[in-house]
Each structure stands twice: as C-alpha cells, then as structure tokens.
C-alpha cells in the first residue's frame, strides 16, 4: 500500500502507522515485518524538509528525536517525503506513492480484543513488554 493508504487503513482500524521511538521499538517493528520494506509513521509532507511523526498518533505530530537513518539518508526531500524501514532495520526516505508493507500501532491495549477481525484474517496483535 502507498503511505497515505496505509495511514488511512490504520486509522480506520483505530490506530496509526507505527513509529519507533527507541532502539527496542525499532527492532520490534523490524521483527514484525521480517526484514521486508515497510512504511513507518513519519513524513515531511508540507513541512519544508522537517520530518515529524505522521500526526495520526494520539499525541499528534511530534519531532523525531532518535533516528535510525541508513548511511546517506535522508537524501531526496523533493521526491521522497515519507519514512520507510528497509530490511536491515535502518530508515530510508521513500516516495510516498510507492507500495510497501506497514505496521499499525494502537493507542491502548484493549485494541487487541477485536482481533482476529473477519475482514482482515492476516492481522495479528502484538504487545510490547
């Protein structure tokens, strides 16, 4: 899914695109996506080159304090305004119109009670310890 479709999909489920705030969370997301490329909840759409979390989280858009950028990234603020995780767990600025996997994050533990969902058989719920 594209970045916006993934963001909308997570929102429709009551969540938001996951965004790692520390090394533990970054590793956790990497394990979930099994070394595949995946959208993260951060972008600089309409922000003049400043990456923030996507704003769909309960806290709203917030500065990205700890980063895991791959060497040489971010490198294309004109055409690549969304953050994606590459197979190594490092981040890359990607074209928001590209299609990648994604992970939804939910603001409360009770969100897991609705899974499995009949319309989304492949959804799984994970709780951070």
UniProtKB/TrEMBL annotation:
The keyword Disulfide bond is annotated on this UniProt entry: yes
Keywords annotated in UniProt: Disulfide bond
One Pfam match: Lectin_C
Listed PROSITE patterns: C_TYPE_LECTIN_1 (PS00615), C_TYPE_LECTIN_2 (PS50041)
Keyword Transcription regulation included in the entry's annotation: no
C-type lectin domain: residues covered: 1-105
Identification of the protein by name: Mannose-binding protein C-like
Organism of this sequence: Hyalella azteca (Amphipod)
């Amino acid at each position: 899914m594209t970045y916006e479709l993934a963001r909308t999909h997570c929102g429709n489920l009551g969540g938001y695109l996951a965004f790692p705030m520390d090394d533990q969370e970054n590793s956790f997301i990497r394990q979930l996506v099994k070394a595949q490329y995946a959208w993260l909840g951060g972008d600089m759409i309409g922000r003049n080159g400043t990456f923030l979390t996507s704003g769909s989280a309960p806290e709203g858009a917030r500065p990205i304090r700890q980063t895991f950028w791959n060497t040489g990234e971010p490198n294309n603020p004109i055409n690549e305004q969304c953050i994606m995780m590459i197979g190594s767990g490092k981040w890359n600025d990607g074209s928001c119109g590209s299609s990648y996997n994604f992970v939804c994050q939910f603001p409360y533990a009770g969100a897991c009670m609705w899974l499995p969902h009949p319309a989304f058989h492949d959804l799984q719920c994970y709780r951070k310890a």
